[in-house]
Structure formats: structure tokens, C-alpha cells
User: Which sequence fits this backbone?
């Protein structure tokens, strides 16, 4: 069935699944997962080069040339650190797209939304296309949109937790509030979680651990692709309202006596 | 003179440029981004940027992440 493309900052994408490049057992497995997922955008981190490991295979060698790289600021706990990371990412990737992530706590990896908004404002002024990871708080989501972010990426659950959508009501509120795409980022564990996020109206979904750490990552990547497509199509189709009691599917007339 | 390169102390000759440091470390310039004292030094300026005693140099590349 026809669907409109996902448009972020004027750029169109057919796939509504964005995947990561972390935690894979090997680059070969990662590449196969990327292909199975159908993703057109992949996230990468910016890290110190290991000076002792010369001539090591480069991650970029294993990422399809047609994919858009979305560098993240994972591991940053202040707006200043996130800005530095974005400047380095720009120098590395020759692109100004960034996944902004400013964390507030090591145990939950919950975002520090105050620092995130602060960094977003500076980055937008500097001409970056900013996709911020945030909590499922509608007010923060609105502030990030007002700061000029190209999309807003609320969490389904803590990063890597696999708990699925914890607060569907908030995600629905955020979707209603925003004009820019809402991309649910982090916390999905399996295909049904992905479908739930898409059925709520999420424009896209970003995940890493659920695929990379599945027992069969490539198969999970394929499952997630289908779940995102199915969830999106169900959202467009419009689900039936929930009822407390049964409603027969077969006619009540013409029953034999 | 002494530098901090990716958090490790490193002894280099005085006035070494970013290009020369990367060559000494055996790093392909196209693969990395370089920051000196928290400011990026653009690739086009690697050849002219001379490092000073105590500079904090960060050499980074893309790594797997979510």
C-alpha cells in the first residue's frame, strides 16, 4: 500500500527504521543486519582512535555507501561535551546531521533535557540538522521543536532495556503536539514493541540493542523491518475502538432453528 | 615537549604540526578528526597548525554506536 515518505529536514526516506552500529559481534553481522533492516539511516558514535591498533578494519568500510550516517553524542553529560562531539563528527563525516544525546545519569541513561535543549539551540544556530534523544515528556519535546530541531526522538524505555513502550499515552500526546517527525528512540525489545510505537503514530523508530543483541540478529533485523511497516500501516488504517464486550462478526439473522 | 594525546602523555619534538604528529603515529588523516584544546583543527589546517607544550590533542574516528 502507498505511504508518504518520511521527510526529515527536507530529505525523503522510504524506510522508517533507523538502526545503530554498536554491540554487534562482528562487522559482517552488522552489515547483514543493516541490509535485512532496510534502514537508510544508521547511527555511529565518535570515539578516541585506539593508537595502539594500527591498520584495524574501519567501521565505515562495513557501512553501505548509500546509507546516511547519523553521528551521535552518546556518552556526553553536558551540552559543551555534546557540542565538541558534534564539531568532531562534522569534521569526520562532512555532514551536519547529528543525533543529539545528553545524558543525566549513568544507571538509567536518562537524558538531561535541560542540557539537551541548551545544546540543541546552539547546534541549530550553527546550521546542524539536529535529531535529539529525549524523555517522553511532551513539554520538552515541544521545546526541542521550538529550538529548531528537525525531529524529536523520545524514548520508549531506557536505552538497551528492551522494556518496550512504557508510556504510550505520552508518546501519543507528543505526536499530537509536534509538526516535525517523532522518532521513538531506545527501549524496544522485540517486534511487537516496534509495532506498538508505530501504531501510536511514531513517524520512525531508532533501535540498536534489540537487533544487535538478539540471538539471531539478522532475523531480528528482518522482523523489525516488518513490524515497523505493519505498525505504520495499522496506524494509517486506523484501529477499531476498544469495547468492553463482544460484538459478533457473523450475522445474527438467518440462524437455523 | 610534552603533549597529551588521547589522554596519554607523549614526548614529541618542539613545534610539531598536526600532520607530522599523525604521520609519526601512523594514522591516515582522512580517517580521523583532530581536536586541540577542545577546538577542532580542520583537515585543511593540519599542515600549518603547530602544537605547543602541554596541548591536549584528541584524535577520534567513528565507532559503533546507537
Assistant:
Amino acid at each position: 500500500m502507498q505511504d508518504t515518505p518520511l521527510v526529515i529536514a527536507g530529505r525523503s526516506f522510504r524506510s522508517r527504521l533507523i538502526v545503530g552500529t554498536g554491540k554487534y559481534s562482528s562487522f559482517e553481522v552488522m552489515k547483514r543486519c543493516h541490509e535485512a533492516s532496510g534502514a537508510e539511516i544508521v547511527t555511529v558514535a565518535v570515539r578516541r582512535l585506539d593508537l595502539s591498533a594500527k591498520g584495524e578494519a574501519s567501521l565505515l568500510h562495513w557501512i553501505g555507501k548509500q546509507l546516511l550516517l547519523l553521528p551521535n553524542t552518546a556518552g556526553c553529560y553536558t551540552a559543551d561535551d555534546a557540542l565538541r562531539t558534534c564539531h568532531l563528527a562534522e569534521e569526520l563525516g562532512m555532514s551536519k546531521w547529528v543525533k543529539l544525546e545528553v545524558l543525566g545519569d549513568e544507571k538509567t541513561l536518562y537524558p538531561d533535557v535541560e542540557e539537551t535543549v541548551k545544546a540543541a539551540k546552539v547546534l541549530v544556530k550553527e546550521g546542524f540538522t539536529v535529531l535529539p534523544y529525549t524523555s517522553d515528556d511532551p513539554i520538552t519535546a515541544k521545546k526541542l521543536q521550538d529550538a529548531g530541531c528537525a525531529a524529536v526522538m523520545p524514548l520508549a524505555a531506557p536505552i538497551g532495556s528492551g522494556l518496550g513502550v512504557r508510556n504510550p499515552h505520552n508518546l501519543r500526546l507528543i505526536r499530537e503536539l509536534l509538526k516535525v517527525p517523532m522518532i521513538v528512540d531506545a527501549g524496544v525489545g522485540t517486534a511487537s514493541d516496534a509495532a506498538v510505537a508505530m501504531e501510536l503514530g511514531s513517524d520512525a523508530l531508532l533501535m540498536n540493542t534489540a537487533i544487535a543483541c538478539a540471538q539471531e540478529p539478522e532475523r531480528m533485523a528482518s522482523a523489525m523491518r516488518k513490524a515497523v511497516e505493519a505498525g505504520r500501516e495499522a496506524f494509517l488504517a486506523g484501529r477499531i475502538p476498544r469495547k468492553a464486550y463482544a460484538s459478533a462478526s457473523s450475522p445474527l439473522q438467518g440462524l437455523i432453528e | 615537549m610534552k603533549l597529551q594525546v588521547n589522554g596519554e602523555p607523549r614526548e614529541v619534538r618542539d613545534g610539531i604540526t598536526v600532520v607530522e604528529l599523525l604521520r609519526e603515529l601512523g594514522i591516515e588523516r582522512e580517517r580521523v578528526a583532530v581536536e586541540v584544546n577542545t577546538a577542532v583543527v580542520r583537515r585543511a589546517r593540519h599542515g600549518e597548525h603547530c602544537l605547543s607544550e602541554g596541548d591536549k590533542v584528541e584524535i577520534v574516528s567513528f565507532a559503533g554506536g546507537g
